[in-house]
Amino acid sequence: MLDVFTPGMHFVYVLLGWKCSITNRHVLLDAISRRHGLKVPHAK
User: Fold this and answer.
1) For the segment 2-37, what is each residue's pLDDT rounded down to a tens digit?
2) Does 38 map to a domain?
3) Where are the beta strands (DSSP E) in the chain?
């Protein structure tokens, strides 16, 4: 399960469905590769 919150602690994203032990990298890559997935802002 991946939960994402803003710095102000507002819930903005959840990804469910991983059944076994998996690395954080794999979960993050899955989240950002989905059609309406996690959007990561670019640094200024």
Assistant:
1) 888 888 999 888 887 777 777 878 888 888 888 888
2) no
3) 2-5, 11-15
How would you classify residue 3: left for phi > 0, otherwise alpha for psi between -120 and 50, otherwise beta?
beta
pTM: 0.56
Is there a domain that residue 40 lies in? no
- The pLDDT, as a whole number, for residue 44 is 53
28 within a domain of the structure (yes/no):
yes
6: Cα within 13 Å, side-chain hemisphere: 5
- Beta-carbon contacts of 12 under 8 Å, excluding residues fewer than 6 positions away, are 4, 5, 6
Question: Contact at 8 Å (CB) between 1 and 14?
Answer: yes
